[in-house]
Amino acid sequence: MTLPEKGVTYADAGVDIDAGNALVDRIKPAAKRTNRSGVMAGLGGFGALFDLKDAGFTDPVLVAATDGVGTKLRIAIDTGHVDGVGVDLVAMCVNDLVCQGAEPLFFLDYFATGVLETDQAARIIEGIALGCERSGCALIGGETAEMPGMYPPGDFDLAGFAVGAMERGADLPSGVAIGDVLLGLASDGVHSNGYSLVRKLVEISGLGWDDACPWTDGSLGEQLLTPTRLYVRQALAAVRAGGVNALAHITGGGLTENLPRVLPDTMGAEIDLNTWVLPEVFRWMAQTGKMNESELLKTFNCGIGMILVVAPDKADALTELLASTGEDVTRIGRVTDTPGVRYIGGLL
Hey, is 153 helix, strand or coil? Predict the structure, then answer.
């Protein structure tokens, strides 16, 4: 191999520092829009600073969560529709934080790719900023890693890390009791779990990402890339109103696995599947894969993205409050004295 006359540069190895600097300049306005009380220093330094006292906390307990988007990224990469996966990334972290009773404060992202494509990366990170903005969370730092030879052309990976806080003694779950009411908040579709199965079902169907969606308008790829719903502001409003004893974010494991995580070991839940209508995306997947209902319920959210476990005497008021924030709220069941989840009725 012949060496360049001027010597080998980092760019010769496949890393473009100028492109990275251009990306930082482009995303600064989006990050600035996420600023909130407590932010002391954000993008550009070796670390980011956050002042909990300035954010209004007296005796705070920190809560941290990290997550990714999973193989939903494969669809985004293959279709070029990358704008929404940043929202997914934020939602998967902050929706978990709020289940502990915490207010999300700040977010950091990790974006890794083989060759940095500034426009693609900016669209992704602007989506992250949008998710942060909608959940009252500051995007105060992150890492863009250009790693030639690690990823095929056009491929990338995403991870996120969120930190929240609550006043000491305000953590959830707390006070869950037999007879508590389960309020389900509607999802915006598949969200960000089960996409290895989703992609398998699309393969079985013989359809491509650009083909017409079988259950609604638009292409199949576009519909399957609908971002995860953010529940932060709505859930926090309900918690602050009183009567919320637990929250469960319905992610991988579906209703079957996630709800028991916030219930005492001696308690379980009864869920009436007749109280809401299964969204058509799940019905299409069940029909395409000849899936039985139990498999559907332990894999996908099935139309319920967040469950609030609330005191019976507060259920009506909290339903009204959540509906006023734009949530589609359904009373789906109750807490019982039998561990596990018992279903009545049917979705299919």
Answer: coil
